[in-house]
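All the exercises in this workshop are built on plain-text protein records. A record pairs a protein's sequence with a compact description of its fold. Backbone structure tokens are a discrete shorthand for how the chain folds in space. Once this layout is familiar, the rest of the handout is easier to follow. As an example, a complete record with its sequence and its structure tokens follows.
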Amino acid sequence: MKKIKKAILTGGGRATRLRPVTSTMNKHLIPLANKPMIFHAIQKVVDVGVEEIFINTNPGEDDLPKYIGDGGHWGVSIKYFEQTGGPQGIAHVVKEAEKFIGDDPFIFYLSDNVVLANLKDLMKEFHDNNYDCMLAFAKVTDPERFGVPLFDHSGKLIDVLEKPVNPPNNFAQTGIYFYGPKVFFEGYSKIKKSARGEYEISDIHSYFLKNNFKVGHKEITGWWKDTGAAADLIIANRLLLDELSEMEFKNAGTTHSGTELIGKVKVGVGTTIGANVKITGPVIIGENCTLENCVIGPHTTIGSGSLIKGAMIANSIILSNCHFDCDLNIKESIVGGNVHIAKKNNDGTHRLILGEQTVIDL
């Protein structure tokens, strides 16, 4: 089998569980370790030799092409395609990309999956055994949310069950799939929409297993997370920050002599850190920020153009152009772009202008 040079990445969906942040931005652009989430997925497939990437987008949405570009940053080609006909399941995403894939083998990667381990072991096993399909499983506490493998008494994989009410084990099918030439589209032609009106990718894998296709599987022993909820994003951000090497953390800003920087701290160009600021890494501060009289970290990222005065922020993701000018102590939080919080009333009251599905714990 020739080596995999193509990959399909997901970039669509509405991510309703992450509102209100995703009310105004594509989920895949939410920064983790101060890089859009989908950038991590792109890097994973590039690292195993992929040269052409195809990303699906929501109809009429141009945010991903604008932020990601044509792939030149990674030395690859990136093209975009809309998923027509509305949401019909992730298997339908792949079917929509058939004109790009043709008869070539490919990787299908759900971009909201965060994996710390590289994909090289999966790729090697896929090629060495000449598999038609290679699946990656991970242990989870809530397997009923995922496709779950079914093994016989000897440990042989015999089926994949989509979101079973009573999961037979605590393994989940992760959003990382390897396919040999043509096989995916043959499998797709044999399945029908599920009761929820979607083409389930687990049904394709079930078809493979019941019709003598060579299906390999491997457990991801490193950390894996499907970032479907805010708490998942915060965990992913923390772990990605921990994974970054010391070389990734450089101070390119202006730092007051009274500033205390502890551990791995990255400061962007044009950022000014004033007096009475304590930052405990790992922390990434974006470009053109101003920090005064505040305590930041650990495990915190602050987007470019932000102003932080008088606040304490830990284990949080703060997007670009946020202004906090008050005595504020927050942790395990996600704050969308252009949020302004200031103390103006001295009578103990608060003035709030909040969007739909905003969450505030006081």
Notes: The first strand starts at residue 6 and ends at 9. The longest helix spans residues 230-243. DSSP finds eight helices and 27 strands in the chain. The helical segments are 37-46, 63-68, 90-96, 98-101, 120-128, 183-188, 201-210, 230-243.
